[in-house]
Amino acid sequence: MKDQLNVLSLREQVYTYLRRQMNLGALVPGTTINIGKIAKQLGISKTPLRDALIHLEVEGFVTILPRRGVCVNVLELCDVKNAYNAIGMVEASIVIECFEKIEPSHILILEELNEIQIQDVEKNDYSRLFKTNIQFHNVYLDISGNELIKKFILPTKQRLYDFPRQNYIKEWETRNCKEHALFISWLKKGNPEKAAKVLKDIHWSFEYQKNFIKKFYNISE
């Protein structure tokens, strides 16, 4: 039975379909995507499929190999390092730049989202952890109004976490929530530099998080 695609943008729907297949583990890092098979499965031409794959390549999910097909990229330790450090620098700069726009209502939302994460970790329920974490960081990212930054950060985070993971580390997730709380405390004290430092030098620091990162991704140097 063919997967059904509705109307909107066919390219966007194919892109979403492929991302979902990655998330479900149907498309595994290191394997090759069979364009003809997927086009037939979805009942579409290869054009929107190729367009979606170009989008995925820009975001780092796949590599298009001329005359050899499309490979789902393996996440190497250096990729994680670059992503962490880049996200940390960008998020820290946004907090400093937009601090005057952060209101008590924003801080309240941050506290509520962090509490949800704390409760889920305590219950060993990781089903919505990534989504809630994205919402937490988007509270201050959305204040910037810089759409280009958002287009960079979200795909980078999805590249880090969207392939299926069964090895959530409770100790690491608990520590992440504590880092969130520390970040919030500096915002409440009116110190954006200290809040930014938590993001750049702790929360998104590859060196600081390296032991957990290597364990989470099961990769070594």
CATH class of the largest domain: Mainly Alpha
Count of domain modules? 2
Q: Give the H and E element order.
A: HEHHEEHHHHHHH
* Class derived from helix and strand content: mainly alpha
The major sheet is characterized as: 3 strands, antiparallel
Q: Termini, distance in Å?
A: 44 Å
Q: With helices defined by DSSP (H or I, 4 residues minimum), what is the helix count?
A: 10
CATH architecture of the largest domain: Up-down Bundle
CATH topology of the largest domain: Four Helix Bundle (Hemerythrin (Met), subunit A)
> CATH homologous superfamily of the largest domain - what is it?
GntR ligand-binding domain-like
The total count of strands amounts to 3
Radius of gyration: 19 Å
> Can you tell me the residue ranges where pLDDT is under 50 for at least 5 consecutive residues?
none
Mean pLDDT: 90
* Gross geometry: globular
Query: What share of the residues lie within helices?
Result: 55-70%
Strand order of the largest sheet: 1-3-2
In terms of DSSP E residues, the strand content is under 5%
Task: Itemize the secondary structure elements and their pairings.
Blueprint (H helix, E strand, L loop, with lengths): L9 H15 L7 E2 L1 H8 L3 H13 L3 E4 L3 E4 L4 H22 L5 H19 L6 H16 L2 H15 L8 H19 L3 H12 L2 H12 L4
Antiparallel strand pairs: 1-3, 2-3
Can you characterise this structure?
The structure is a single chain. By secondary structure, the chain is mainly α. Helix content is 68%, strand content 5%. The chain has a three-stranded antiparallel beta sheet with strand order 1-3-2. α4 crosses α6 (129-144). The radius of gyration is 19 Å and the shape is globular. The N and C termini lie far apart (44 Å). The model has no long low-confidence stretch (mean pLDDT 90).
